[in-house]
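Lecture 7 notes: from sequence to structure.
We start with the chain below.
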Amino acid sequence: AGTGLEYSRVYDLDGNKQPVGALAGDLILLDFFGSWCGPCRRAIPAINELNDRYASMGLHVVGVACEYGQTSAALRAADDAVRQFGIKYPVIVSPMDEASELRDHFQVSAYPTVVLVDRTGQVYFKGEGGDAQSLRQLDAAIQRALSGSRVAVK
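Predicted structure tokens for the same chain:
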């Protein structure tokens, strides 16, 4: 079983197309953000904290930089964001000027959007906005998922 995205491809920060299946982990938190998005920038410290707190317990955080411009401009913006905002987790790039199976699959229409999935592709949590309440809900969903609760939270 898999996420259903094994054959989708995204860019790494070096501009190489990588299969999304390479993101495999027990529990994956996808943080769809843009460097142009104020709420996204404000949520990054909290996502860093979740990564620090839960990585040893099986959480794999991946930033999905949704940047405008041609591929090279989107890659530069994402790389700059990683350095400027101190992102501690891996970041892949999904240029906004290109079609994205990943954004489409998770129906991302607002930024930031966080999606918590297990290795089978079950969505435990999807949240938008990056405000304190949605981040608390995300933290609770991570705790439930890591404790073995199979109740998906949407």
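Points to note: The beta strands are 9-11, 17-19, 27-33, 59-65, 91-93, 113-118, 123-128. The longest helix spans residues 38-54.
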